[in-house]
From TrEMBL:
It catalyses: a 6-O-methyl-2'-deoxyguanosine in DNA + L-cysteinyl-[protein] = S-methyl-L-cysteinyl-[protein] + a 2'-deoxyguanosine in DNA; a 4-O-methyl-thymidine in DNA + L-cysteinyl-[protein] = a thymidine in DNA + S-methyl-L-cysteinyl-[protein]. It is found in: Cytoplasm. Belongs to the MGMT family. Involved in the cellular defense against the biological effects of O6-methylguanine (O6-MeG) and O4-methylthymine (O4-MeT) in DNA. Repairs the methylated nucleobase in DNA by stoichiometrically transferring the methyl group to a cysteine residue in the enzyme. This is a suicide reaction: the enzyme is irreversibly inactivated. This is Methylated-DNA--protein-cysteine methyltransferase. Residues 9-86 form the Methylguanine DNA methyltransferase ribonuclease-like domain. Its EC number is 2.1.1.63. The keyword DNA repair applies. GO terms for biological process: DNA alkylation repair; methylation. InterPro entries: MethylDNA_cys_MeTrfase_AS, MethylDNA_cys_MeTrfase_DNA-bd, MethylDNA_cys_MeTrfase_DNAb, MethylG_MeTrfase_N, MGMT, MGMT_N_sf, WH-like_DNA-bd_sf. Keywords: Cytoplasm, DNA damage, DNA repair, Methyltransferase, Transferase. GO terms for molecular function: methylated-DNA-[protein]-cysteine S-methyltransferase activity. This enzyme catalyzes only one turnover and therefore is not strictly catalytic. According to one definition, an enzyme is a biocatalyst that acts repeatedly and over many reaction cycles.
Length: 175
């Protein structure tokens, strides 16, 4: 019986002009972007759940390309990401996350829009659950999803972070 090798997960703390969040990557790509001002425990618990038994190692140099691109986005110099991602989820979750990546910078979509886009129009709640499980905040732009009536809805990073990101992108919320 062949044992699957557990990937090492590397992390750093992105701290830039009021932003403070943990980011992590495997050798395959960025796998986690944390919530604004959340403690180390958010990353540690996520790794324990998603990569049980994996070693978690601080490696600022290895994470620098990811941090550089995130900072360029936060500074308004970039509106899309080219860094490799290592997002692991069910086929349904991955379909939802891919749909999120197609929402243009500065625009929003509803949960119903995403459900229709992945050809599962009755799966609005499941779409919401998949969005809530998005491990790579900002890069997979779940902050661009709003309620059907145009209101802001839940966000793993917190509502304040969602509002800041939408404002940063100049999103005009639908009402």
């Amino acid at each position: 019986m062949k044992m699957e090798k557990k990937p090492e997960v590397y992390w750093t703390l992105l701290s830039h002009e009021g932003w403070s969040l943990y980011v992590a990557a495997t050798s395959e790509g960025l796998c986690f972007v944390g919530s604004q001002d959340h403690p180390w425990d958010e990353l540690s618990a996520w790794v324990s759940q998603r990569f049980p038994g994996s070693k978690l190692t601080q490696d600022d140099a290895r994470l620098q390309p990811y941090v550089t691109e995130l900072i360029a986005y936060l500074d308004g110099e970039k509106d899309r990401f080219s860094i490799p991602l290592d997002v692991r989820g069910t086929p349904f979750q991955r379909a939802v996350w891919e749909a999120l990546c197609q929402i243009p910078f500065g625009q929003t979509r509803t949960y119903s829009d995403i459900a229709a886009q992945i050809q599962k129009p009755a799966a609005v709640r499941a779409v919401g659950a998949a969005i809530g499980a998005n491990p790579v905040l900002i890069c997979v732009p779940c902050h661009r999803v709003i309620g059907k009536n145009g209101t802001l809805t839940g966000y793993r990073g917190g509502m304040e972070m969602k509002e800041v990101l939408l404002s940063h992108e100049g999103s005009a919320l639908r009402v």
